[in-house]
Design a protein that fits this description.
374 residues, alpha+beta, seven-stranded mixed beta sheet, 60% helix, 15% strand, rod-shaped
Length: 374
């Protein structure tokens, strides 16, 4: 691994790089930070795997290439302007379609060959755990005999790390521009690992939320599913790029192809895990919907039980109100002070009124009792 610790076959780059990092650490970056306004970040001319010159501009870089036989230029650009891209296209005879893609960006990972020049689009990723978002950066590469041009449209990947690690091993850098391509590919794929770890951690948190009954879990699941899908769109097409390079679209160097196959293996693991994340989130969403439905059913049962209990109480109150209303009605009728009113002069009128009240109340009580209201 150029960007990490994977170049091991034959004890070459991997052993030297491991020993270097173990004993003295990684040297300071030779590539200055990207200017906020965009433009040339770093330009270097290499001869025999060693930095021969560090030109300050594109014109000086072209001159060094012409004056030195067997030289290779590595030009790093950050959101360049039209004039810089036009100058590079004229000097290295870059195809118009590739130049247009590099200017406009917003491309999916792909590999295209224009004559002796390879045009590669990569999408680096970085996970923002606070916002739970995957931030993507486009990287465009022009790879040709004796030159490498990198055009970044974002902060990632850290090409300064790739450059300084390649410069620690002249044997690997001497393999040419395609060795740099493989090193950058490896750096991009290595950058996917923290993204996978961040997504996995958030999925674990979501599972805890779901089974804890958090009402915000659904929103978080949808948001994370969107990030996983976007990550898939960035990582999966890169497999086709690596496969095309492996079968001969790039270098004929068998050693480089071995390193490339190692990068492909790691990318395959990333893609498989991300595919698993998508299925897992779908299952979590289904479980969450089931749990929410069960919770709603429980709430509905509770409401129904409460409503039933209230209805039963209302029946009792209504029944007793009707029972008590009957004697009140009878007493009210017989309490009117009319002179010509039947039964007012009847000696048994009082007893008759009481018996009538008891009879009506008893009848209503029996009726309500049979209907289950009392």
């Amino acid at each position: 691994m150029v960007g990490g610790r994977r170049f091991r076959p034959g004890g070459g780059f991997g052993r030297q790089l491991d020993e270097y990092e173990t004993t003295v650490g990684v040297p300071p970056s030779t590539e200055p930070p990207a200017p906020s306004h965009g433009g040339l970040v770093d330009s270097a001319v290499y001869v025999g795997g060693h930095r021969f010159a560090s030109p300050s501009g594109l014109a000086e870089t072209y001159r060094c290439l012409q004056e030195q036989d067997g030289a290779m230029a590595w030009i790093g650009l950050y959101r360049p302007d039209i004039d810089q891209i036009t100058s590079l296209a004229r000097e290295f005879r870059l195809h118009d379609l590739a130049v247009e893609d590099a200017i406009n960006a917003h491309q999916r990972p792909k590999l295209e060959r224009y004559g002796h020049t390879l045009f590669v689009v990569l999408r680096a990723a970085r996970y923002d755990d606070l916002r739970e978002e995957v931030e993507f950066s486009e990287l465009h590469l022009f790879i040709g005999p004796g030159f490498v041009v990198t055009v970044r449209h974002g902060e990632a990947p850290d090409l300064a790390a790739v450059r300084r690690r390649m410069e620690t091993d002249a044997q690997m850098l001497a393999r040419g521009s395609e060795a740099i391509l493989y090193a950058i590919l490896d750096q991009v794929v290595d950058g996917y690992a923290p993204v996978v770890a961040g997504l996995e951690n958030d999925i674990d948190e979501i599972e805890t939320q779901v089974f804890g009954g958090d009402p915000n879990a659904s929103r978080r699941i949808y948001g994370l599913s969107r990030e996983v899908i976007q990550f898939q769109r960035a990582a999966r097409p890169l497999l086709s790029v690596l496969d095309a390079l492996a079968v001969g679209a790039g270098s004929a160097d068998e050693e480089l192809r071995r390193y490339l196959r190692d990068v492909t293996d790691h990318l395959t693991q990333v893609v498989e895990r991300v595919d698993g994340f998508r299925h897992l989130l779908q299952n979590i969403l289904t479980v969450n919907a089931t749990l929410v439905s069960q919770q709603q059913n429980e709430e509905m049962r509770s409401l129904t039980a409460a409503s039933y209990s209230q209805n039963e109480e209302l029946k009792k109150v209504s029944s007793w109100a009707a029972i008590l209303f009957a004697p009140t009605l009878i007493g009210t009728v017989y309490g009117m002070n009319f002179i010509h009113m039947p039964e007012l002069n009847w000696r048994l009128g009082y007893l008759f009124a009481l018996l009538l009240m008891l009879l009506v109340c008893g009848t209503l009580y029996v009726i309500f009792k049979r209907r289950g209201w009392l």
